[in-house]
Amino acid sequence: MSASQVLICYSDHNDPLVRIARECERDGSFHLVHVDEILPYAQPVEWPEVLRIALPEKFAQRFDTTLTINRLFNFANTETSSKLLEWGVNERWLHIKVSKYLLRGRQLAHDLGQRGVSRCLLPLNTQWFLLNREDASFPTPMFSFAMGYEAPQLEIMAHPMQKSVWSFFDWKEEQTITPLETRRHRFFVDSPTGIPVIAFYFGSDVEYVFPKQSTTVDRNMYERLAHAARKIFRSEAGELLTYMEDDGTVRFYGFSPFLYSSRISDRFMELGHGWLDRALH
Known about the structure:
The protein is α/β, with parallel strands linked by helices. It is 28% helix and 22% strand.
């Protein structure tokens, strides 16, 4: 196998990065492995092993690449999800068991985190804490997180709204909050004001998407923010939701590795292709 290859291990058939790889494919340089291709080699076993994955060596050798891109963020709408549910095995075990194959490459994008799931899938309050610790010059939202059934401190916010700590989207009205979250471990944030700006990056290349209205941005500032995100979230590709407020303040609201919002950009394919192409040389 040539050393100059990229492998993308993914779970979502509509993954924007997979689309880039398919449209830029040439000479077998890109390998795509869907999680359901791994399923025939997985089986439930007794504790403490729980799940066993044993790929044939010829299959496993596909992971011996220059760049391995982990896109196993969730298994919704896959055969794998249904089978794990049937076996009574938590999805996290598959993340953990497949990690030895993901780590066979020379470089891994979207690392595995401490328990197998990618480190870039962090709750919002943790994202803000890590960014403030890395670079305190980027403001983050005011929030209140109430443990258990205690009441959150809403008086510290001008316009409090309840959100799920896992929700990157829905900053005007939360759509994905679970019934349990509405009552317990409640999370409130100060509603954003101003113009939403989504910055997306592939490696060191940064571009922008304006969901509502465009504005002038400080490119240097967004490049610094993207650099911090690459380090904090161990992610070589992702998008950053910010709001530019009336006084010019740019406030960071969240990081997402999914790239769903960014794919509408005219430069999305160009930047993504450039990143993958550099990995081959």
